Each structure stands twice: as C-alpha cells, then as structure tokens.
Amino acid sequence: MTDNPELVAVFKALADPIRLKIVGLLARQPYSVEQLAALVERKPSTISHHLAKLNEVGLVSARAESYYNIYQLEPAALEETTRRIFSKEQMSAATAEVDLDAYDRKVVNDFSLPDGRLKTIPAQRKKLLAVLRHLVQAFEPDVRYSEKQVNDILARYHADTASLRRELVGSQLMQREGGGGDYWRIK
Amino acid sequence: MTDNPELVAVFKALADPIRLKIVGLLARQPYSVEQLAALVERKPSTISHHLAKLNEVGLVSARAESYYNIYQLEPAALEETTRRIFSKEQMSAATAEVDLDAYDRKVVNDFSLPDGRLKTIPAQRKKLLAVLRHLVQAFEPDVRYSEKQVNDILARYHADTASLRRELVGSQLMQREGGGGDYWRIK
DNA sequence: GAATTAATTCTATACATATGAAATTAATTC
DNA sequence: GAATTAATTTCATATGTATAGAATTAATTC
After folding, report:
1. Domain A5-95, CATH class in plain words
2. pTM above 0.90, yes or no
C-alpha cells in the first residue's frame, strides 16, 4: 500500500454540509438532480458538481429515467468504508509506509559532523537515545568485545568513550558480563 | 437538531493525507510534535496546525511532559463518531431538517402568476402532480362538492377546469361517487 | 424537425486552507 | 539569570473548492 488517497477522497466527499445532506436524503429514497437542488436550496449545476464528487468515490450511483438522472445511495460503499477506516488493520497500514527511523536519522544528522563524528553528546534523553541506537550498530551482533575494543570503536565518534559506554549499557542497548568482563550488543 | 456541523468538522479533520497519517501513527503510540514532524516530513508549525484541528474535534489530546507536548489518540472519539455517522438515526436526523415540500413550492411558483392563477397546466407528470397537490388544498376535507362547485373553485386557477378536475381524480387526490355524483378530497 | 427540458460542462469568482518562515511563548538546563 | 529548546501563534502565499451563470449536451415532446 503506497498511500490512502481513496480514503482521503471519501472523507473529502463527506466533509461538506450540502453533500452530507444529500447523502442523508438519498438514504431515504432516490432523487433527481432537480429535486435535490430544490430540497437543499442550491442550483442544479452546483448539485451536479456535488453528485460528481460523491459518485467518484462510489457513494452514489445514477440511472437514467426518461430524461431525468435519478441518483441513489450505495450503502455497500458506506459500510465498506466504515470497516476500512476504523479497523486496526487500517491504522497499521497507514503507519506501515511511514519511515519509523526518520526521527532518529534527523537527530543523528543534527549531532554529526561531516566525517561522522559527534559534535556533542546530546544532553536530552530522547536525542541521546536516538544517537545511541545509531552507535550500537557499529558493533556486530553475537560478538564479545573487551572494554578496550569498545573504547576504540566509540572513539571514532567522540573522545568521551567512557560516557558513551556507560550510556549504552544503561540504556540496555549493550550488556556487560559480571565484574570486568566482556561487552556485547543486545538483540 | 439544527444541522450537523460537528460531523462535518470530523470529516474535514480526517480529509487530509497528513492528518490521516498522524492519526495512524498515534493509533500505535503517542508522539511529540517534533517527532511527528520528522515522521511525516513537515515543519513543526505545520504539525501544530494539524494537531489543533484534530484536537478541536476531540480526536486527539495532549499532555505536557518536560517541555514536550505529547499527543495521543482518543479512540473513544473515533468509535463514537463511527456510530453516529453511519447509523440510520443519523441519516434520518440529517433529513429531518430539510423542507420536503420545497420542490412542490418551487414548481407551483414557477407555474403561477402573481395573482395565484396558473400560467399553464404543466405537461410533465412530476410537475403536474406538484401543482395538483397544491390545488387540492382549496377543498375542505370531509366536504362533498357538486361538479359545478368544483369547477367554480378550479376556475380561480385556470380556465380548463375539466382537465384539472379529471387529473385530480386520476391522480387519486379527489374521488367521485358513482355516476354523476359528488366529489370529495381524499385523506 | 423544432421546441422544450434536465443535466452536465465551462468559466469566473469568492472563500477556505495547507504550508512554512518569523516572532512569540513556555519550559528547562546550565 | 542567560541560553537553549519545543511548541504555538502570526503572517504571507499558493493551492483548492463551493457556487452559480452561461454554454453545451442529450433526451423528450409536439
């Protein structure tokens, strides 16, 4: 799913008082354009315009009768829309296409020099965590590192390797065995 | 119920791709304005604007945390809206406030001279019926009229009283007893 | 075939709104 | 208290859209 333009279109179609009235009227019985125009007190050309929008998203359909165009509601489209809109699936689908790492990348970029080193270590917790999630990727999963090895790797980012190392452990991104043992990356 | 401005407002709030994404994101977890801005790739001021619209209709709420404003979804508002929108009651309510006689009045007006007489008798069936529904009100309910009395009353509207009389009977708005008997208004 | 009529399409206009830069506000950190 | 920072508000602008008159199309009636 690339986006939800159809869903937005349905909402747009319903986001107008006149069109909402038309839907309400057609829920009772079909009407011609002229009749709807009289009922909601607008000109036929305006009603045509509104019906075209409702028709585009499948909420109404038309049938020719004599030389009238009789419009009727498509209840199936309404129900179908209801299900799609408020289901958990829909929520997830809307979310799926968003880049969930965008924020992290922005923060890392804000705090990084062109060579990849950190300008400073973020003081704010949220931003520190974003940077730490970035740093931890310099370590291989399932590999044990000595404290010196950890420091050497972190030194590529910032001189204060002790702080970085401590925060990585404190934030549960890396773990340390017993007393002065080895470090490894979590998950 | 005077109108459904709140309902239109909810649809308007959801009728925007960015706001729909925000709702999708907040369905998973709360976010700050800045985080949302990064996730949907818009400036914080724009996100503030969108969140204000969602907040106005009760779809989201905010709580202060440190100096962040954390926004969260209000699922109850969503469900409440779903129910209201697509229920039959809603449809009827939307319809109730519309003047169902507006079409008739328009037709009668189109075919009437300033003094109340008819310019012509409508040739089209729908418009003829609207005019007949108007004419029949010149007769009292539960009163029997002779053919001459009927003609006299109809003559106030048009010279061709025979046609009008025949159409009133044919359209079941008036009834005639047996052979050459009296006429009376139905219902 | 000419006249009538409903509906649509075209066009112009007024109003609404999404966007982001700049200024302001409110809260936190040092 | 000064500096920093997130959020909001203000403002300008560009885009979108609801409305209806005019022109056009399609169908019916006489």
Report:
1. mainly alpha
2. no
pLDDT along chain B (187 residues), means of 10: 69 94 87 90 95 94 82 82 61 54 74 73 82 87 88 86 87 80 84
Q: Tell me the C-alpha to C-alpha distance, in Å, between residue A167 and each of A122, A125, A161, B81, B128.
A: 11, 10, 10, 45, 85
CA at B55, C1' at D1: how many angstroms apart?
36
In sequence order, the β-bridge partners of residue B175 are B184
B151 neighbors B161 (Cβ within 8 angstroms): yes
The residue type found at B144 is R
A12/C11 CA-to-C1' distance in Å: 24
Domain positions in chain B: 5-95, 102-185
Give which of B85, B103, B81 is closest to B94, Cα–Cα: B85
Determine the residue type at B70: I
Amino acid in position A155: A
- The beta-carbon neighbor of B98 closest among A21, A79, A90 is A21
Asked if B35 lies within 8 A of A100 by C-beta distance, the reply is no
Exposure of B16 by Cβ count < 10 A (0-12 exposed, 13-18 middle, 19+ buried)?
middle
Give me the residue from B28, B39, B98 closest to A103, CB to CB: B39
